[in-house]
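Supplementary Methods, section 5.1.

A reviewer requested that the exact input to the structure prediction be made available. We therefore reproduce it here, unchanged from the version used in the analyses.
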Amino acid sequence: MATSTLDTDEQHGTTPLQDPEQAPEQGDADPPAAETPEREKRRRAPLAAKLAITFGALLMMTSGTAIIGVKSVVGNLESSIQVSRSDDLVDPEASAEPAAPTGKAFVGAFNILLLGIDTREGQEATNARSDTILILHVSQNHDQAYLMSVPRDTDVPGTDQRINGAFTNGLGSKGDWRGGLKSAAKAISKLTGGMTFEAAAVIDFGGFKTFIDALGTVPMCVEAPTKSIHHFVVKGQPRYIGGIANDHEADSYARRTGNPRFLHQPGCSEMAGWQALDYARQRYLPDDSGDYGRQRHQQQLIKAMAKKAGSVGVLTDFGKVNELISAVGKSMLLSLPQGMGVTDFLFTMKDLAGTDLVLLKTNAGTYESVMVNGEYQGEGLDKTTKDMFRAAKNDKLGNFVFLHPEVVNNEK
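The structure derived from this sequence is encoded token-by-token as follows.
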């Protein structure tokens, strides 16, 4: 049963499948298996980091008409995106001096903290974790940019927690992203040896569905038959089932309930938001590429979104542009210095478009386990990674990379 598929002409053609959330009620599916022990350890590289950078590019693309003075678009951009002030991002115990904002741009070297959360259907807002943690460092003269990642399972010394839980700790009873960001920034500053952050962004990748739905569909190509661990076929309709962590659990659920896993068939088609996101979320892939493959598919999705959002038919439709901006605004929180507006920040980032972006590996792209008395505590940071963060803190990454070329991620 687990290898079955929802085999319809729609799945193979250009008509997108119906959104499981909009499908008629077919009766309740059985609950998933109980929460599993620790997920399997795996290799990871910072390629998913490009999601955050490209998300900013999408913002600029959908607001590109603002460059020629369409005030309504600028106003919607400013009002749609949640903004907090970055004064509380600086850890009082940190020794590094933050960059001086002029109100319109940054002066000197600066760091931007990027947190990616991936909320799922049925997940409590107070349980969100920052499973993607990225640091963008821009050099003194703004001629070089470096992107580093902090592994989500990194052990926080002196606690029984991992770094992705710091965001959760600050959410409070209402799931306030501002509190989560403040808590995460403080913990990450300490973990990296006192780095300061002049700005930050929280991005909900699940919110991309809203963006794609505003576009209609996106063109996606599936390389090989790919079974979902998130969607199952319940009475002929794809249905999202939460709480399943891996391939084994998905197969077990399919056998127990008789509801086969949804299968993404090879080939190119127009996908609705839920289907495109589901495909891009899969890490149990036929070629065993794991997180690397998932990151590749996420990049494919981002490119598809950017291409469609940047098409003439979209950018010349001010109503559509405003709809897209509103969709983006629901999925993003920006933390900016006093006096800097959203448009100022995005134009600052746009000015960096020609800057060479260097992707840097953490722990050489491999899992660095921390064991205490034979018990797994999480992932650690090796000496080279700690030196890399120290170099970023002191704006010496150029020298560091020259001495440690092995940390540069050259994968496309």
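The first helix runs from residue 9 to 12. These observations are discussed further in the main text.
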